[in-house]
Amino acid sequence: MLEGGDFMFEFAPIFIGTIFVIVTSVILFTLIKSISQWNKNNHSPKLNINSKVVAKRTSVHGGGEHRAYTDYFVTFEVESGDRIEFKVSDTEYGMLVEGDNGELTFQGTRYLGFTRSNENIGIR
To answer: Where are the membrane-spanning stretches (predicted)?
Structure first.
């Protein structure tokens, strides 16, 4: 019997087992992290803060032979000068304009809404 064949029969199960453990670990880590963030958001207070829309951006992933997906992000500046970025829906992204002043509502890292104000609230 050839020596090369023995190596493959010993190496293949170890390699496949290692890949299985790595993939399973990544899936479990992602699941635990998502549940943890969801729970943290649910236990955070709902906040309403005067803010200004200062930036909008998109992130496209996929494409080529697969469907492309677009994520929409909006950055708000609050009265203290801090900036907060939230992932928003495509509809909400289209309704917000850079420079809009109003009241931002959020809970943890979860965007809940923005109510535009016609008056200048004093944010740069």
So the answer is: 12-32
Q: Is residue 122 within 8 Å of 79, Cβ to Cβ?
A: yes
What whole-number distance in Å separates Cα of residue 94 and Cα of residue 92? Answer: 5
CA dihedral 57, 63, 68, 69 (to 10 degrees): -50
Give me the helices (H) in 47-89, please: none
CA dihedral 77, 57, 109, 26 (to 10 degrees): -150
DSSP bridge pairs for 80 = none
Residue 2 host element (H or E): none
3-class state of residue 113 by DSSP = strand
Whether 71 has a pLDDT exceeding 70, the answer reads yes
Q: Mean per-residue pLDDT for 82-89?
A: 96
- What pLDDT, on the 0 to 100 scale, is given for residue 119? 63
Question: Do the Cβ atoms of 107 and 45 come closer than 8 Å?
Answer: yes
User: Above 80 in pLDDT, residue 27?
Assistant: yes
